[in-house]
Amino acid sequence: MTATDHALELARTAARAADDRLAENIIAFDVSDQLVITDVFLICSAKNDRQVRAIVDEVEEQLLAVGAKPVRREGQREGRWVLLDFADLVVHVQHEEERAFYSLERLWSDCPAIDLGASE
Predict the structure, then answer these.
(1) Containing structural domain, residue 92
(2) CATH number for the domain including 110?
(3) Where is this protein primarily located (predicted)?
(4) pLDDT single digits (tens) 51-89
(5) How many CB atoms sit inside 10 A of residue 100's CB?
(6) Residue 72: CB partners within 8 Å, gap ≥ 6?
(7) What are the DSSP calls for 6-28, one per residue?
(8) Banded model confidence at residue 119, pLDDT cuts 50, 70, 90
């Protein structure tokens, strides 16, 4: 099983949105073979809590513009690691310290990376 075209397009839109707010190290993995709850994980980081929130706001705004609404949002109050669940896509926006500590990309490195185009 591979990620749907819809999930891939959402991931690319989210990556562009994160890039617009200067997110760093934007990567995505096709987790559809490992998880039944989603197709794609997109991970990016920011230097501070304020930037984490700005990235989250921009991702939500741009995905809403293409008809995708988050079904769940976690961590927004703390601003250190915000998870946005769009069903087919889960976006992780992490403060760089949390990114280094939890190393999600290492956990999911056996999953295929997704080409995000110019947003990478």
Answers:
(1) 5-116
(2) 3.30.460.10
(3) cytoplasm
(4) 999 999 999 999 999 999 999 999 988 889 999 999 999
(5) 10
(6) 83, 84, 85
(7) HHHHHHHHHHHHHHHTT-EEEEE
(8) very low
Query: What does the pLDDT read at residue 35?
Result: 87
DSSP three-state, residue 87: coil
The two beta strands, 72-74 and 81-85, are antiparallel
Q: Pseudo-torsion of CA 56, 64, 28, 113, nearest 10°?
A: -170
Question: How many domains does one find in the chain?
Answer: 1
43-54 pLDDT, tens digit each: 999 999 999 999
Please give the structure tokens belonging to residue 86. 């769009």
What gap in Å lies between CA 3 and CA 6, rounded to an integer?
A: 8
> Distance of CA 69 to CAs 62, 86, 98, 107, Å?
10, 6, 25, 27
